[in-house]
Amino acid sequence: MSSISKNELYPHEWLVILFLIALFVILTLATHSCESQSLPQDEMTSHYIVNQYIEVSVEGAVENPGKYTIKKGTTVKDLLDIAKLTTSADLRHLKQDRVLRRGQIIKIPEFETIKIILQFENFSLDLELKKGTKLQDLPLLYTFESDIDLRKFQKKRRLKDGEIIRVLTFSHKEGIKQLIVQP
What we know:
Helix content is 21%, strand content 21%. The protein is of the alpha/beta class.
């Protein structure tokens, strides 16, 4: 009945195979001819696939808290220069040379403060100081009148919140005339 054995192909199958081979040869030749005509490229322009900016947030003891869009590679110190630290910012535990990451939140804590009272013979003065301030630091922070007895301020102990420090003059009569706060 049929003159073709099981291992042989029909003529229309040979035509399909020849068509596919011809198509493959034509596509290969077209690809090689396009490669020889390279398109001019501007070698001075960089093409970035990745966004070069990241968004980070700053909270806490800064004048301008919020979200910032900055360049990748920006350090914590650079960001804090932009956000402007307050005078109460506590940077003791912050590594300022670290590079920021996308979505990072920087929290700047404030120094804990204590309130003390300097009690002179004629008046008293309320002061707010950083927690951990020592009694010996007071003459460095404030300039006292020359008739104040500074021997009391030679102790190295830390001041306590709510502490009252009685300040005596050498004359024990006039008291302090003025207390000048240094910048």
